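Form 7-S
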Amino acid sequence: MQQLNYKTLGLLPLLFCLSYQVQASSESECIEKQVASSPPEVTLGEVRSICAALRSLDEDGSVLIRGQKVQAGVLTRRVIAERQNDTAEFVLTPHRMNYILPAYSTSEVNPEVYNDIETLDDGFKKVESKFQVSLKLPLSYSSLLVDGDRIYAAFTLEAWWQVYANDISSPFRETNYRPELFYIAPLDWHPNEANTAVMLGIEHQSNGRSGSLSRSWNRVFAEFIYEQGNFVWSVRPWYRLSEDAKTDPTSPNGDDNPDITDYMGHVEYGLGYAFGKYELSAKMRQNFATSNGAVQINLTTPLYGKLKGYVTVFNGYGDSLIDYNHHQTRFGIGVALNNMF
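Output:
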């Protein structure tokens, strides 16, 4: 088996999901395919590394790191698949999960935020639909600072749709837009034959509303990822970029939600485990000063073809930006287009 340089693969954060395997019948065929679909910035050495990774995984799912045999984890497998196809013209690469929840229930619709809109105040149902679309695009194709690192731009759209509220014309109760720019690099540190990576980035999140319903914030973040076999762990602290205070509640300028970190916290922890074709994950946020936070548990199951069954449970603050300071328990069931990792 040819030795695989793990630095050339890189890792991606928890909840970036696209599970599929690509077979290469020979090294020459694999290299020919990669050269044909890759931009000029990709070096021949990087192409050979991708093909070597595919051959290693085809044999027994393991790789060699400095002469030691290590099992390639779930994130590493995804990176190999993505790096083989993310330069193809007609391929869209998932970032976070892409899903639709036809039924997404809540213990309580936010009782205060819609008081100023009388037509909506009493019309919202406790069961609505939710969907998410999340994609990313590589902005670099060759190594920059260390082998295997890359820069990505990404965009995530979340929408909460009151599809069952016929009396008020079934509006979209909330939409959140989340563009981001991040740098990801593998680390040359493999404790207990595990794999590690770090990510640095900046993101904006807003709901695109005006007046009293406007919510937004900007933050810079760092993330550390640990992967060992089918287990993934991550920690993602962030720092909110300050905004000017509002001088008038109706003004479009100034901070719409100055206390958002009191509820959303300053850090998010992630855990995930893949067992067979099932994947279980949890996300936890916490502000230790205010004791506010949230926990979300997700399960994906085989369904049909590339479709996955998706079940999620949420408890705490910040299910959406409009509900950043509203505590609730939510349960959803639906279909996902890709796994969590």
